[in-house]
Structures
1.
Amino acid sequence: MSSRSAQAQELAPNCPLPVAIATTFANATCTKSTLPAAQTFYRYFHSSQNRYGRYLTTDRFSTNVEAISKLALHQDWGNRAEQELKVTLPAGTVVYQGVVGPQTPVACYPGGGQQTFIETSKDPAIVWTDGPRLKLYTFQCSQP
Amino acid sequence: MAPSLHDLLPLIDGALAVADRHRHGADGDRVTQLIGILEGLRSQVQAGTLQPSVGGASLGLSRGVADWVGQLDSPLLHAVAAIEARYQQLAQG
């Protein structure tokens, strides 16, 4: 098998989402399930612009730099992950779960945290509750 | 001609064109932010400073757009996904 076709096979999604979203998971792998009961997830944000969104996690972080690194929150998008948000999804919500995929530069955004994706963040039954502020450190990414 | 990261330039320009058409929509601020990110990416590619994908790493474009885009079949998401796909195809072996 040529290296190019081997690479294409490696990138083939194993996740029932559009390829664009499947490849945000590590190894393009995720599992689809329906919540049998209400469940709380988390999101890390710092402004109204990035408070709500489709990407959640079951991981909890105490510092902003850990959240940015493990959730691959590329700082070009401006989310400094200064506060935790508790997101309670109602029973019956379809979730896609896997591992956060790495982003370039990988030394800064290795991912590896738990990643949960929901099809819409606008369900009125979702409860968004402010959590604690994280311990803040300067996030340094020396690579371009 | 051997494939290179410069192959991304027409895809980036395509995404910029799509983003420009959505600049005055509901998520105008976010689209403007995306335009800035795409222009920065374009500069990196032209300067030869963009690192190739390693270990399946993406550029974070799809992750960024999919978080807030109105519909998951949005032309914006399709446009950035095309960049991501080509970037990963060009990865080091």
Note: Helices of chain A lie at 3-11, 19-22, 64-70.
2.
Amino acid sequence: MRQARIMMGMPIAVEMRGNESRLEFFDEVFSYFNYVDQKFSTYKNTSEISAINRGELDAGSQSNDMKEVFALSEETKRLTGGYFDITKLNGKIDPSGLVKGWAIFNAANILRSHGVKNFYIEAGGDIEASGFNAEDKPWRIGIENPFRKDGETKTEIVKTIDLSDRGIATSGTYKRGRHIYNPISRSLADDNIVSLTVVGPNVYEADRFATAAFAMGRDGIVFIEKLPGFEGYQIDKNGLAVMTSGFINYI
Amino acid sequence: MKKIFLSSFLIFVFTAHVIHQRITGSNETAVYIAPPAAATATEPAAPLPAVTNSGGYRDGTYTGKIADAYYGSVQVKVTVSDGKISDIQFLDYPHDRNNSVRISAYAMPLLKQEAIQTQKADVDAISGATATSGGFNESLASALAPAKN
């Protein structure tokens, strides 16, 4: 069974194998995403993160989840040599490069706590894929074509991979180009890379490293290659893709 | 007759020695560089360093052909000092010669490259970067409908 809703400004889909799914599990997962949205959305001035950015909330008064996200962000910043950084150019804090994967991972654990073993949860292009699909095969995941023609609504893919008990995240720019900030050079990163897909042990890990590696430009795929347990697929503006040496295991 | 036999023998010894040098030379690095004879060259380039029979490469910098190495297309710039390969630069896709990823000779296997190819989306789910707050309207249709055709 599958349900999809628009939340956190993005489509969120949950699919569970028939014998394991319950309607209340869907409600619980979407309810959790709503909770995350209310707390972490930088577009909501009632959110906790917005209050923090206005200087209204000191560190001691922050919620446990906010403290956890800040701590994980610090750790990720250290692991990526500063390429992951939730403090933006304007001094505001925006942890969305980590929150999305973190939230999907937590939602997946909600399902696991109910004994659901075969499911996927997808939010904004990041996916946690657990167990197997209805055909008893790993979940078939497509990597989206980063070059979409104007007015084209049908989604095209450029690669198909099979995932079971893995997380996948794709960082990228739109066809029209969204400028990516490089926290190390403190300037706009080069626009050579349009898409970097990372597969890791879970979607939280995949998301944080995809975010960091994308800010590295062409070196991003090299960083992922050196990271044990992670594979990547990087596409440049010419449509040339480079993959890490173990990525072939997923094809 | 004896002269021809001797010449052939010397050529055979030299060739065997050159091959031996190539084999031991390439064992020092973590990458496989296709020998020029096997390369699928698409543009002319400076030749790869000549092997001297004193057991090493001549010092200098050499740009290889765009070779079809084991993992995929690659063009390398090799720096030789003290008769050994001291650095290898992986030059990018030909359209973008200014960018290169500098990798030490002992660090990295070659990464496979390919031109992307669009294909039918017969999948359970899709991973992409466009479905975020700025662009979710575009992917709304594909998100709410089952992804599998």
Note: The mean pLDDT of chain A is 92.
